[in-house]
Amino acid sequence: MGLIELASANSVWRGMDYYEKKKVVSWKPSGDASYDGQVAGSNNRVYSVHIDKVHPRKSVCNCPFAAGRRVVCKHMIALYFTAEPNAAEDFMKQVEEWEKKEEERERQHYIDLKNYVNSLSKNELQQELYNALVELEDIRNRYW
């Protein structure tokens, strides 16, 4: 697993935002597959970041979220995307591809739903409507 796969979705998207806003103040390679850098945080504090692509759990940042923990934070993602912009581009391509496929899945779902409704008899349709209204009422009572 790589840095992106180990990070939460929130860390990845916030890291992408930091990358795009050029919050990586400085960086340099520190090995064949590792980088050290300084990344400005949302509070204008600069954090020291080390990322290791081969052993991503050895990556560290001194921000409050990651300090002393084996997690991937937004600062690590920002450094990774800055040091390897092709990785950022590949990530965005994968997201766009997933979104395109998701749109198609959703479109197909509604076609299937319409076909199902059209296949029901009047009595079956009335029973399905009743069941849906009861379920909706249960949900409303549970959460409101």
Descriptive terms for the model:
144 residues; alpha+beta; 2 domains; elongated; 4-stranded antiparallel β-sheet
Explain the overall architecture.
- 58% of the residues lie in helices and 17% in strands.
- The chain is α+β, with helices and mostly antiparallel strands and 144 residues long.
- A four-stranded antiparallel β-sheet has the order 1-2-3-4.
- β1 (24-31) and β2 (34-40) form a beta hairpin.
- α2 (9-20) packs across α3 (74-83) and α3 (74-83) packs across α4 (85-119).
- The chain starts with a helix and ends with a helix.
- The model has no long low-confidence stretch (mean pLDDT 94).
Strand arrangement in the largest pleated sheet:
1-2-3-4
What gyration radius follows from the Cα positions, in whole Å? 23 Å
Oligomer: single chain
Low-confidence parts: none
Largest sheet: 4 strands, antiparallel
Note the total helix count: 5
Judging from the principal axes of the Cα atoms, what is the shape? elongated
Mean pLDDT: 94
Order of helices and strands: HHEEEEHHH
Report the portion of residues in β strands.
15-25%
Number of strands: 4
Judged by helices, strands and strand pairing, the structural class is alpha+beta
Please tell me the total number of domains: 2
Distance between the termini: 41 Å
Helix fraction, binned, reads 55-70%
